Amino acid sequence: MSFIVVLVLLVLVVIVLISVFNGLVGKRVATENSWSQIDVQLKRRHDLIPNLVETVKGYAGHEKETLERVIQARNSAVTAGQSQGVAGQAQAENMLSGALRQLFALSESYPNLKANENFAKLQEELSSTENRIGFARQFYNDSVAAYNAAIEQVPGNLVKGFGNFPRKEFFELGADEAQAVRVAPKVGF
Which fold does the domain 35-134 belong to in CATH? Predict the structure, then answer.
């Protein structure tokens, strides 16, 4: 009789361990999937930038330094996506966001550029892509939070040693982007 009780308990423990292991695998796959959603939007952003730079060149070609900074930041972001982790990718993307802000600030100095249909369309596409990146980043960070909590809580912390369950990094805003999000715009009449 005691052998049967021990056998039943052992089977229950194995079932629980398998269930927890499968849950961790599911959460790990969810974080990888959510990262791939960010990656799709970042690639879209990277593809739009050369067209935007070419459009600006036609109107503000002598703003060479700003245009080169945007191109350099774009190339760094593309390379970071292929070789660096989440933190490196986030840093490169934050640098690209800063360079793009400078590029869009140029349009204020060039009314013809601001009125250009291609520029307006590209700016709208980029703005839409930025929104998609924001939603994807939020989903990714939510997935990472759930995954990291699962591998740190009992029984996940006991089971994580049986598989490849490293802690995942959050995709965080840079200081400039975080400040821009926190500061409410001032409206004056």
Answer: de novo design (two linked rop proteins) (1.20.1440)
